[in-house]
Structure formats: structure tokens, C-alpha cells
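Protein in question reproduced for absentees:

***
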Amino acid sequence: MVIIIVLALIAVIFISIGYILTENNSKYYLTGYWNSSEKDREKVDLKNFLIFFKRFHLVFGLSFFFIGLILFLFVSKKSVGIFIAIFPFIGYTYFYFGQKKFWKGLNNRKEKP
């Protein structure tokens, strides 16, 4: 029973992350965006990024809970522990590569002379 509560709490945290970030507060929370000039910020497709961000965290949180629940009910408690440790790395790896298309106009790397 404790594992189900832990799965639910972590899933709620993941889902909440998707709803905390908005267009109004993104310039304060997004790394690489908050320290960019207004000119560079205009190059970022923020509106579509936020849609992707919210959708990713909603799907990720729900799949985290339901896959973890299925593992708990049909496999073992040990498999749920492994799942809790590994699934976020897999999910955020997908997120990292998926979000790059929205940041094409922003290049924070300093060019070599």
C-alpha cells in the first residue's frame, strides 16, 4: 500500500510541474531563456514549447503511476523500485531531445574566435 502512495505522490509532482510553468513565469524559470536578451527570446517558440512541456509532464506522470501500479500488482515490489529509479531518466532523455526543436533560434554557446 505504501508503494502505491509513493507512486501517486511522485506522479502528482510530475503532473504539477507541467502546470506550474506558464508563459508569464517562464522567463524566470527556464534555464537558457531567463538569461537571454529579449531579441533572443523572440526566436524561441515558447508557446508550442509550453504545450509540449505540459503534455509531456501529464503523460509522463500518468504513465509513471499506471506502469508502476501494474508492476506492483503483477510483477513484484522490487521491480517497482527499479522502475521508480530508471523511468525518470528514460522520460527526461526523451524530453531533452524532444524540446530541442523549440530552441533552434537560441544559441547560448559562446563562439570561438
User: Anything to note?
Assistant: The chain has one domain: 2-102. Residues 2-102 form one domain. The chain is about 70% helix and 0% strand. Confidence is low (pLDDT under 50) at residues 109-113.
